[in-house]
Amino acid sequence: MDNSFALNGRIWLETANGKLLGKGRVELLERIQQSGSLRQAAVQMKMSYRQAWDMVNQMNLQFSSPVLILNRGGKGGGSAQVTEKGLQVVAQFHAINKKFREFLAENQSAISL
User: Fold this and answer.
1) Among positive and negative, which fits the CA dihedral 40, 42, 45, 47?
2) Neighbouring residues of 11: CB distance < 8 A, sequence distance ≥ 6
3) How far apart are CA 85 and CA 107, in angstroms?
4) 52 contacts 37 by C-beta, under 8 angstroms
5) In this structure, are residues 41 and 79 in contact, taking their beta carbons and an 8 Å threshold?
6) How far apart, in whole angstroms, are the C-alpha atoms of residue 65 and residue 78?
7) pTM of the entire structure?
8) How far apart are the first and last CA of the chain?
9) Residue 111, Cα to own-chain centre: how many angstroms?
10) pLDDT score of 74
11) Which of 88, 102, 92, 80 is nearest to 36 (CA)?
């Protein structure tokens, strides 16, 4: 029997209202940035448009300014634009997550159960 252990985990931001930002929401914002479309990003992530819209709406309401601007569709369809705030949120999440991963790697040898 292998008795080795590994540190692992995920990091996310939450408020009193629940989860605000984590790996999935960051990926959603990144896919929207790449495609210019909330619907396309939702399809790529195999989630419903409604679920993606709810996630973005919650982030827009809880951050100090919107992370995404949605333009309703017309003949050519709608569009979505990640704001400067959204880009900052994504960058900060990646920086925090990198430090978290480094912490896990640096402390791996401390595990001896």
Assistant:
1) negative
2) 22, 96, 97, 100
3) 33
4) no
5) no
6) 21
7) 0.86
8) 14
9) 30
10) 63
11) 80
Both tokens of 28, joined, read: 């959603």
List residues bridging with 70 in a β-sheet: 80
Residue 21, both tokens: 């930002």
In tens, the pLDDT along 21-64 reads 999 999 999 999 999 999 999 999 999 999 999 999 999 999 99
DSSP reduced 3-state for 95: helix
DSSP lists the bridge partners of residue 81 as 69
- The token duo for 42 is 């939702």
Q: Which residues pair with 83 in a beta bridge?
A: none
Tokens of residue 19, six digits = 């989860």
Residue 16 CA, chain-centre distance (Å), reads 18
Using alpha carbons, list the distances in angstroms from residue 105 to 12, 13, 46.
Answer: 18, 21, 31
What span, in angstroms and rounded, lies between the C-alpha atoms of 73 and 62?
25
User: Taking phi first (over 0 means left), then psi (-120 to 50 degrees means alpha), and beta for anything else, what does residue 42 get?
Assistant: alpha
- For helices 84-107 and 23-35, the axis angle rounded to 10 degrees is 140
